[in-house]
Amino acid sequence: MVNSTVVKTLYVNPATGNDKNPGDSKFSPFKTISRALKVSTKSTIIQLAPGNYNSLTGEVFPLLIPDGVLVVGNEGTKGRGIVIEGSGAYQSQSFGWQNITLLLLGEATVMGVTVANLSAKGTGVWIESTAPSLVNNTFAKCGREALFVTGSAKPAILDNVFVKNAVSGLVMAGNSKGEVLRNIFQKNVIGIAISDSAAPMLVKNKLIENRTAIALSRQAQPVLRQNLIANNTQGGVLVNGNANPNFGNKQDNGENIFRDNGQFDLNNATSQKLVLVGNQLNPAQVKGSVEFIALISDLAGHWAADFVEALASKNLINSLSDGTFAPDKPMTRADYAALVAAAFNPVPRRPAPDFIDVPKDFWAYNAIQIAAMGGFVGGKSDRTFGPHQNVQRLQVIVSLVNGLKLPPADKDALLCYSDRNTILDYARTAVATATQQKIVVNYPNPKQIEPSRFATRAEVAAMVYQALVAIKKYSPIKSPYIVSNESS
């Protein structure tokens, strides 16, 4: 005889339901979730109709979702129009009395609802030493945090939206672990706060437009992979106490992207060094002791490997999404602007440009603005920038000389080039200056400058590195492809 679990579905509709109904069909639904919970057993599905579930409709808070019970609204809309709003007293084993909306027990599941707790110190969902699942929900406007996880909890928090919560979207404390995957944290004071010895996996989340994206304290040890941390008004990740986040290792790159955060991308306020492997962030936006390690898979034996890896180690240049650098492919104007903005962090010398083909949501918008105001790049007469166009070698050389305002050199420096007659008149002084400063890198023939050829990503990396050497920021790298006019 094969044992099987009988799945029972109960229906709830706050507008048309009645708690005296059997609740076994959408034509005779209960009015309240509270009533459905009283008669639910393990493996019960509680199907919610659109509407507001609050004290005015008869709900008694907090709602305790038992082990194995599944509360379902509309996953496709992440619970839009299916709102559970309320607050009730609950005594936590770890934190005493709390005002909460939902308590998830055992392996309970909540999917496709909106949860709100407008109380001044209200929490939307409380999870303590259990292993529930929260999938495709919206948590909004909670008076304190939307979701509090503590004890030895191991929840699965997947594909939810945490927006406009007064203190935090998600708090993880105690010895909690679990998986936080593909969620959006937006316009919270703190997107995610992790404390005590909590060690969750944070993977592929978007933390945008919060005050601080992630705040770590005490002995927190989260693992962060492939998260987007962008446009947070104060900063990206704040590390306090003895927290030790895992931002990647040689076997498993971090691949977190930090972009356009206010005061910092990463602020390590601890006494220990943090090691970041394979992440994208601006070193100028990093505070505290941090070591960057970039792992790029297609540079072995390449003539420019030392230049690229040196820039990558300072997080000035990044691999592509597949972990490669594609050194022999042409570099686009957008990629070039991003590189010089990160490498030189130029002070503004010109008004902000208004390129009609660079919208504000373009990934390199801010970098192009910085590079243009700093004098490294410019647009065309029709107010376009051409971000996807490839940059020429001559353009790179002139850009570096003009952007750094290097003193002009005598044109005799051009005698080392066998094809010097192909250098356009307007650029000859700039090329001579770059040559004298040992900025020009020619591969495979150092005597051929090939000014009109598109510059490869490797060539641009090498010349930007050499420009950093010229202004005495970096130490020289030996290469036979660095042009020297000393023997001319």
UniProtKB/TrEMBL annotation:
InterPro entries referenced in this protein's UniProt entry, alphabetically: Cell_Envelope_Struct_Comp, DUF1565, Pectin_lyas_fold, Pectin_lyase_fold/virulence, SLH_dom
Annotated ranges, domain SLH: 291-354, 355-414, 417-478
PANTHER family in alphabetical order: OUTER MEMBRANE PROTEIN ALPHA-RELATED, S-LAYER PROTEIN _ PEPTIDOGLYCAN ENDO-BETA-N-ACETYLGLUCOSAMINIDASE
PROSITE patterns in UniProt: SLH
Protein name: DUF1565 domain-containing protein
